[in-house]
Amino acid sequence: MSNGKPRVVILGGGFGGMYAALEFERALARGAALDVTLVNHDNFFLFTPMLHEVAASDLDITNIVSPIRKLLRRVTFFHGEIEAIDLVHKRVGVSHGHEQHCHSLPYDHLVLALGSTTNFFGIPGLAQRAFTMKSLSDAIMLRNHLIANLEEADFECGASLRTGLLNFIVAGGGFAGVETIAAMNDFLREAIRFFPHLREDRLRVTLVSAGPVILPELGKKLGIYAQRKLAEQQVDIRLNCKVTAVKDQDVTLSDGTTITTNTLVWTAGISPHALLDTLPCPKEKGRVLVNEYLEVPGWSGVWALGDCALVPNRQTGGFHPPTAQHALREGRIAAQNVLATVRKGWKKPFVYSTIGLLAPIGKRTGVANILGVNFSGFLAWWLWRTIYLLKLPRFEKKVLVALDWTLDVLFSKDLVHFRTARPPSLLPVKQELPKST
User: CATH topology for 7-41+80-118+271-342?
Assistant: First the structure.
């Protein structure tokens, strides 16, 4: 207890953790007697469904992020890293600042919303060479890389390297992979006309999918439709195929081919957060097992949700999928159940069925399944943008994203190459110009 108030610590500021914090925020506004702290390594909430649009220069970098301190006024925010979790003594070790100051946060209730990390499956060279698409910095790095490749390939000295510079591979046939390659393909084919020494027919954009059809969550019919539309947009799709090795600029595929490229985007696997391995609570495949109330059995006051938890689905007998639309609702239910426990009231089981799944596939085309009804083409793309715009936090960000999308219709995509690293300080050096011949 802190000043007689139960202490709640939320670890992670993704969809699950943030929506749990927002539910506590509302309860605190109504006079709930709690001391709630959210711990996250970023000081913003990232709206990940629009991440690929930042990578493809459709949206401004900061328009899909909301500062946590503007979202939470009553919940305490700790901007730092989670170093250790001690379930026995009910404490969390955290660090922050330039000097990594360490602190210990005691709790009465702990909400685990740590999310997931990228799984490279031990493929040789992959972790060292691949781009990922899980964070804002990932999207910015990929955007910069695409523009840098075009800039380098446009000059004579890049002629011998153009094959590798103009080949682009995305591995993963799920939502993240398909949305990423569609956005990249649109961006590259629109941008290349501004580079006088490059031709669009030199671009090679390849999607590698381990399954027999892309977007398997949407069903075979929509998956085949998406494949056809991407093929019309000159995307090379390799089905039943995997990346087996990455060495220097050569990507080896399971079908025996090798593609020379310096751009491999990996979206083909996730792993639970490494900190979960240190916890003595029950787990399966690295994810924490919880009951229908999102409680961790055997550990009073510990709750888990989102990508780091296996949440039982009473309707199917299986588990709820680790998607954003499930995580945000799990966050709300977890917060409500913590409040019910503190007040000695009735807890709610988590019951939810997926409302719909949507994916943009380039050229203002999309695929969607909403309440069991399939949509495709422009209507599905429009639905994707409308639904996610409505779900984006804060009115200010909604206006900015809507404005960006409107301007995208009227003007071409931005080709500014942002330098994200501070250049080293150099002493003045007197250089001689090369002699003319």
Answer: FAD/NAD(P)-binding domain (3.50.50)
